[in-house]
Design a protein that fits this description.
mainly alpha, 9 helices, 65% helix, 0% strand
Length: 180
């Protein structure tokens, strides 16, 4: 994980937890429980540099200005969205809806960040990812090139829109199940 920017990764992780409905305290508790020991001291540095962090976790440009920061930020988001079982069940329930299709699109992008992005560098892919690795690398590069086309302001707005879409998936009403 030598190419991983820890602050950007943490910001992506915390943003994903808040998109899923966690309070500031719950998002921080999740960070501490899952990754706090791996990233010791990072929380204090994050608190010093993140605007508004004393009261809320909000999307700001603090840790997503450069492409390496964005890579790490999306890896933090991917870490959460790919491992949250409730979100996975929600995506499955919404798969035939427009919002569900967009959610699955971003799940594929998140998978590419986990397998071919900064979090994966230096470790071999899992056997089940090995066959998909060329496709995941292509998907990741396509997404990155799309982000690189934009200037900083437009890129930040685009990423904010992605957050809105993911929040829509996390909060969309589930389709009615046929009664059996």
């Amino acid at each position: 994980m030598a190419n991983l920017d820890g602050l950007s990764f943490m910001d992506g992780f915390l943003m994903a937890r808040t998109v899923l409905g966690d309070s500031r305290q719950a998002a921080l508790a999740s960070w501490d429980a899952r990754l706090g020991e791996m990233f010791t001291g990072l929380k204090d540095e994050y608190a010093r540099r993140k605007l508004g962090f004393a009261t809320e976790i909000a999307y700001t440009e603090d840790f997503v200005k450069t492409m390496p920061e964005l890579d790490s930020w999306f890896a933090g988001m991917a870490f959460v969205f790919l491992s949250d079982e409730a979100y996975q069940r929600r995506l499955e329930a919404l798969e035939d809806t427009e919002v569900g299709k967009m959610g699955w699109h971003f799940q594929a992008i998140f998978q590419s960040f986990m397998v071919a992005g900064p979090i994966a560098r230096g470790r071999p892919p899992r056997p089940e990812d090995q066959l998909l690795l060329p496709d995941l690398k292509r998907a990741l590069e396509k997404f990155r090139s799309e982000l690189r086309r934009y200037g900083l302001r437009k890129r930040l707005d685009y990423v904010g829109s992605i957050l809105g879409l993911l929040q829509g998936v996390a909060q969309a009403p589930l389709p009615e199940q046929p009664s059996g």
